[in-house]
Amino acid sequence: MNNKASLFSNEHLLSLLRGEDDDLLFGLADEIRKKEFGNEVYIRGILEFSNHCNKNCLYCGLRVSNRTIRRYRMTEDEILACVDLLAAEQVGTVVLQSGDDFNYSGACIGRIVDEIKKRHDIALTLSLGDRNLSDYSYWRKYGADRCLVKIETSSPTEYNRFRSGETFASRLERVKELKEMGYETGSGVIIGLPGSGVRRTLQDLMFLTELKLDMIAVGPFIPHPDTPLGDESPGGVDLSLRSSALLRILNPEANIPATSALDALSPGTRIKALGKGCNVVMPSVTPEKLRDSYFIYPGKNCSETTVPAFLDKIRQDIAKAGFTPSPSKGYSHRRKNV
Ligand code: 5AD
Ligand code: SF4
Asked: Where does residue 40 rank: exposed (0-12), middle (13-18), buried (19+ CB within 10 A)?
């Protein structure tokens, strides 16, 4: 833990999460972000290339039992054409994201990674779920830079419940193995899953901090009507903003995105999060005809503009908020001393 954070007791951290001193919390988070990243905001374009998933997480619209969404898969050529467009747009990182979709073989993803890295000087993040570790190791050899594997909650029993029988220990082991393979590794939790309160949130944030991650993402729970949690209350936007601010204080060097779930609950909040400790935005760059089918939760991917227009708008919003939208790959600052 860095010096400033260790000045706070557990009770003080809880009071900060409850909103008892937002000026202190957000002010300190902003100061630490600024010292580490200056004015730069990194942009990671998320290409959601398939919305098929073989998992059944209770909170997620892509769960295999949800028959109400239109499923799609992009071809290798379509994926590569989208990445060409992102590179031309000077986006520094592309995130290839899908549900757990084994229809794309390890070799197929390997070909895509290889081709992207041959064609472009762009950082590549994989967010593909629980694929074989031998595949991840193979993709790493082709030049994949980063992985995103969320733990969603630090409670093994809640993990097992919310992810329909999956085990927390194996998820955690995966995060550690990916780090050892040399991937910049990101993880995160959903804030305000049903039954969790401020104490659980603090436990989650401390747990994430112990993992010494390169990237940490937290966003509020949003009930999806076609899931078993459809009638539950949403997670708090304020608690989510306070959580990312506290993570910044605890993890000065980590990349911390202002998550799109914030905007889904309260439009405009994602940009505000940049002044409260966050330093990354991750817009969907999925082609407009598919974008709204990546329906994880209501309010996700509601923009209907073309990818270049959408990127322009995001860059303008970042600039209007007083930051510099950066074309940098935004490598982890945590690794500069490794
Ligand atoms: N609310 C908020 N975040 C969600 N995710 C999935 N469903 C929801 C929801 N209802 C997030 C999870 C998952 C990612 C694909 O989206 O963190 O890892
Ligand atoms: Fe699949 Fe991920 Fe959604 Fe779970 S959260 S159902 S693994 S896409």
From this structure: middle
